[in-house]
């Protein structure tokens, strides 16, 4: 069978070799392929055509012929579709908008040590550590402070501020930023890296730990650290074993050689110690003798139980002394040290550093040893920024009657053409419906906003003691959406130069800025309910508790607080639930509408960004006016020096100052507020201040009114005009009469 196949193959080969035409065709094809390959290679690497054989398709031939001989060589590749280059970009790392951080709340305002081991465990057990706290890179410094305070809302008091610190060695320091930079979320992500964020409050927290606990915990090294330290010491002793043996053998030849000092660096990146130029460096190799030292200097006697040397970044490495006269010097390995605690503290802090050594060095170099405090932006600056959006070319009209200020304000806010960014134009009318002549250039607006804040404080939408009010539940106000207009009125007053409310309770303000409210029993305005709750809180036995809660059964059912009581200790939680329902949960619907109104002109967002700066404007009455405050507030517009008018005006200035002192001593801040309202329309200095500044002019040509020479005022420009009189008693009587008989704008 194989022989037959071989015979067929030989016959086929003979036929091919005997056919001359077939051999010629095969030869031409081989030459053509070789010439095409040579031509293409020459085109690629020499840039000139080499007379290619045009045996391909017309498309291929035209493609080759379109290449210009003088063109750049790299352009040849574009004529070969399969050879097109592709971009080889490295895959970019995903940019996540959030990152996670461990946040540690320090229990003391004077804490400046890094927390380790036992201290961290104690803080974790007490809830002072948040693991994997999610932060956004887009947060600014104010939002970060607010979110951290919210996370530790049960630990940090509402009146305490916090400071963010980072670990630097064994100390806690505040990051030092360039002027104009703030510790935003992106900045924290860059600076802190793998470090934890330490939060130090402005006051001490109810925790038994103190800074000494943190220092004691530094003494704790884990088992791995102890093993690593022991290995380092054994390695050092072994490296000097041959040196000690050689020293014992050469003792008879060179008696002056007593000891050798071997410098051991604590860290690999620490520079070696500086050696004076006139003194050769000590040699520690086995083939050289140790350096000579003065024979009159005895070696320090150090036992093996002495601590290792102190290692700091600003000191040269400690000297390891080996006594050559002692046979046990190698095994004892005496080490000179001053502070073993500091050595362990630094070695214990090393795992907390980032793996990027250069970044750590740059961060540590930019930090100071003392933290810097961060102050909140003043509320006045924030309000000025919001007031810059007001369009003074557009106006919104308010027709106000002093007896129904709140109703007139609601009508103006409901008007379709009303826009809070437009300038307010207020026109008063008296009770008889006669228009007052005053045109609003600032004074009537301030008068209107002052009356509006007073009307809100005494309206049915608020309840509680004066200066400590909470929202009340009033069905008609809720139906007519007056809670929204109340919030809008407060926002408009703050931005348009009016007074702050100053009558909020701390619970209402806490709810407004997004924090948890903790109302007190005294904030319950219902006297009957207050008496019943107080009786429950004063119960001393379980039977008394059951009797005290029986009259509250229906109320507890409506409040969702009706539950079986099993022991006397249940009264505290029951009282807290009742107070929370009565003050907060009961008015949640009204509060939501009130909060929506406060968003007008961006006021609510600004308050939440700067809660501490705005707190005095909402929770406290304005600072009481004094004679000194009013004297500094008004600018005296005197005549030219040396003129007759100037001398008379200087006498009136003295009368004016004495009059303010008398009013303060006899009638107090309220009458001083009446003087300010007479001149400006506001009885207190508004948060934005006065624009223009209040001034005092002098009336030399005195018109007779009511048989008297009376002072006048232009509240639009905050100008008070005082009569030029020669006697103080006449001046005082004139001022008293004017203040007590003022009818309003444009009225005499």
Number of helices: 29
Cα-based radius of gyration, to the nearest Å = 44 Å
- Calculate the mean pLDDT score and round it: 74
The CATH level-2 architecture of the largest domain is identified as: Alpha-Beta Complex
Number of domains: 5
End-to-end Cα distance: 141 Å
**Sheet with the most strands?**
5 strands, mixed
Q: Shape, please? A: elongated
How would you characterize the overall build of this protein?
This protein has 748 residues and is of the alpha/beta class. The chain has 5 domains: 2-77, no CATH class; 98-218, no CATH class; 381-519 and 588-619, Hect, E3 ligase catalytic domains (Hect, E3 ligase catalytic domain fold, Alpha-Beta Complex); 521-583, no CATH class; 627-740, 2-Layer Sandwich (Hect, E3 ligase catalytic fold). It is built from 29 helices and 17 strands. The chain has a 5-stranded mixed β-sheet. Strands 12-13-17-16 form a 4-stranded mixed β-sheet. Helix 14 links the parallel strand 8 (391-401) and strand 9 (422-429). Helix 17 (482-495) runs parallel beside helix 23 (588-598) and helix 26 packs antiparallel against helix 27 (644-666). It starts with a helix and ends in an 8-residue tail after the last helix. About 24% of the residues have low confidence. InterPro entries: E3_ubiq-protein_ligase, HECT_dom, Hect_E3_ubiquitin_ligase. It is an enzyme of class 2 (transferase).
């Amino acid at each position: 069978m194989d022989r037959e196949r071989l015979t067929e193959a030989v016959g086929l080969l003979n036929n091919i070799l005997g056919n001359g035409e077939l051999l010629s065709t095969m030869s031409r094809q081989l030459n053509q392929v070789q010439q095409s390959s040579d031509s293409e290679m020459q085109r690629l690497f020499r840039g000139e055509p080499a007379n290619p054989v045009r045996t391909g398709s017309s498309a291929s031939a035209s493609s080759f012929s379109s290449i210009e001989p003088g063109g750049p060589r790299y352009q040849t590749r574009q004529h070969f579709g399969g050879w097109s280059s592709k971009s080889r970009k490295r895959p970019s790392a995903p940019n996540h908008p959030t990152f996670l951080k461990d946040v540690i709340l320090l229990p003391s305002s004077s804490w400046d040590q890094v927390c380790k081991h036992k201290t961290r465990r104690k803080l974790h057990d007490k809830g002072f550590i948040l693991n994997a706290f999610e932060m956004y890179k887009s947060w600014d410094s104010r939002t970060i402070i607010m979110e951290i305070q919210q996370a530790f809302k049960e630990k940090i008091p509402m009146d305490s501020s916090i400071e963010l610190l980072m670990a630097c060695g064994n100390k806690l320091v505040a990051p030092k930023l360039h002027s104009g930079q703030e510790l935003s979320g992106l900045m924290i992500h860059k600076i802190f890296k793998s470090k934890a964020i330490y939060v130090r409050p402005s006051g001490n927290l109810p925790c038994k730990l103190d800074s000494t606990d943190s220092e004691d915990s530094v003494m704790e090294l884990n088992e791995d650290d102890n093993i690593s330290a022991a290995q380092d010491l054994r390695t050092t002793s072994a490296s000097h074993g041959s040196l000690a043996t050689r020293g014992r053998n050469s003792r008879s030849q060179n008696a002056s050689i007593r000891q050798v000092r071997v410098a051991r660096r604590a860290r690999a990146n620490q520079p070696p110690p500086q050696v004076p130029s006139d003194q050769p460096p000590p040699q520690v190799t086995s083939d050289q003798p140790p350096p000579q030292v003065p024979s009159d200097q005895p070696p320090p006697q150090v036992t093996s139980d002495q601590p290792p040397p102190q290692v700091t970044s600003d000191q040269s490495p400690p000297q390891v002394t080996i006594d050559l006269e002692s046979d046990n010097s190698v095994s004892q390995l005496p080490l000179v040290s001053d502070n073993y605690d500091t050595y362990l503290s630094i070695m214990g802090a090393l795992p907390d550093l980032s793996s990027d050594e250069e970044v750590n060095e740059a961060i540590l170099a930019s930090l100071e040893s003392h933290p810097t405090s961060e102050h909140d932006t003043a509320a006045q600056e924030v309000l000025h920024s919001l007031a810059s959006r007001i369009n003074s070319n557009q106006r919104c009209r308010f027709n106000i009657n002093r007896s129904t200020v709140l109703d007139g304000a609601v009508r103006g806010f409901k008007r379709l053409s009303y826009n809070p960014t437009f300038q307010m134009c207020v026109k008063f009318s008296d009770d008889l419906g006669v228009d007052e002549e005053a045109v609003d250039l600032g004074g009537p607006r301030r008068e209107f906003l002052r009356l509006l804040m007073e009307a809100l404080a005494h309206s049915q939408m608020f309840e509680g003691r004066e200066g400590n009010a909470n929202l009340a539940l009033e069905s008609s106000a809720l139906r007519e959406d007056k809670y929204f207009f109340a919030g809008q009125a407060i926002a408009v007053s703050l931005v348009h130069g009016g007074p702050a409310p100053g009558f909020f309770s701390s619970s209402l303000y806490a709810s407004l800025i997004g924090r948890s409210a903790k109302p007190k029993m005294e904030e319950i305005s219902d006297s009957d309910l207050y008496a019943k709750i107080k009786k429950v809180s004063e119960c001393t036995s379980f039977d008394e508790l059951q009797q005290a809660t029986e009259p509250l059964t229906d109320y507890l059912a409506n409040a969702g607080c009706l539950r079986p009581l099993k022991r006397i200790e249940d009264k505290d939680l029951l009282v807290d639930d009742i107070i929370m329902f009565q003050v907060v949960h009961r008015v949640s619907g009204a509060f939501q509408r009130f909060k929506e109104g406060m968003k007008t002109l961006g006021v609510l967002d600004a308050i939440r960004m700067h809660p501490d700066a705005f707190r005095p404007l909402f929770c406290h009455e304005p600072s009481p006016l004094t004679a000194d405050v009013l004297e500094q507030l008004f600018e005296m517009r005197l005549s030219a020096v040396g003129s007759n008018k100037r001398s008379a005006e200087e006498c009136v200035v003295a009368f004016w100052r004495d009059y303010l002192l008398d009013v303060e001593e006899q009638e107090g801040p309220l009458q001083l507020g009446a003087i300010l309202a007479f001149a400006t329309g506001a009885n207190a200095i508004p948060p934005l201040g006065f624009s223009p500044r209040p001034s005092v002019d002098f009336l030399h040509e005195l018109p007779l009114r009511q048989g008297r020479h009376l002072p006048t005022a232009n509240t639009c420009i905050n100008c008070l005009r005082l009569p030029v009189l020669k006697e103080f008693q006449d001046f005082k009587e004139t001022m008293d009469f004017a203040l007590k008989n003022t009818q309003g704008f444009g009225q005499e």
